[in-house]
Specification:
The chain is α/β, with parallel strands linked by helices. It has three helices and five strands. The strands form two sheets. It has a three-stranded parallel beta sheet with strand order 3-4-5, covered by helices on one side. It has a two-stranded antiparallel sheet with strand order 1-2. The radius of gyration is 17 Å and the shape is globular. The termini are far apart.
Length: about 100
C-alpha cells in the first residue's frame, strides 16, 4: 500500500507541492556494512519514507550477504515474518564458536 506524503518546497518565486510515495507496509532491510556498491549512508532517513521499518545490520558482510550468510539471512527473514516482537533495529552477531 502506498500512502502519499506531501512535501512543500518554498522558493522565492513559487510554492511547490511534491507528492512523495511512502509505504506503510512492514519492511525489512538487511544490510551488509562492508557493501561497497550501496553505502550504509543510504539508510539515513529511510524511516521517514518507510515508517514501519526494521533493519538488520551485518557488520562483516558485503553486498552479497544472502549468498555469503544465507542461513542467518533466512533465519532473520523468518523472524521478521513470524515474530511481532522482532527488533526494529539490530546488529547481527554470530554465535560464539
Amino acid at each position: 500500500m502506498i500512502r502519499p506524503t506531501f512535501a512543500i518546497l518554498r522558493s522565492s518565486i513559487a510554492l511547490v507541492v511534491v507528492v512523495v510515495p511512502c509505504t506503510i507496509a512492514p519492511t525489512f532491510v538487511i544490510w551488509g556494512l562492508k557493501d561497497s556498491a550501496i553505502l550504509s549512508g543510504h539508510l539515513s532517513g529511510l524511516e521517514q519514507w518507510v515508517p514501519n521499518l526494521s533493519v538488520r545490520l551485518y557488520p562483516d558482510d558485503d553486498h552479497w550477504i544472502m549468498l555469503a550468510n544465507g542461513k542467518a539471512v533466512a533465519r532473520d527473514i523468518r523472524g521478521f515474518i513470524e515474530d511481532p516482537a522482532f527488533p526494529k533495529e539490530s546488529v547481527f552477531r554470530p554465535a560464539p564458536k
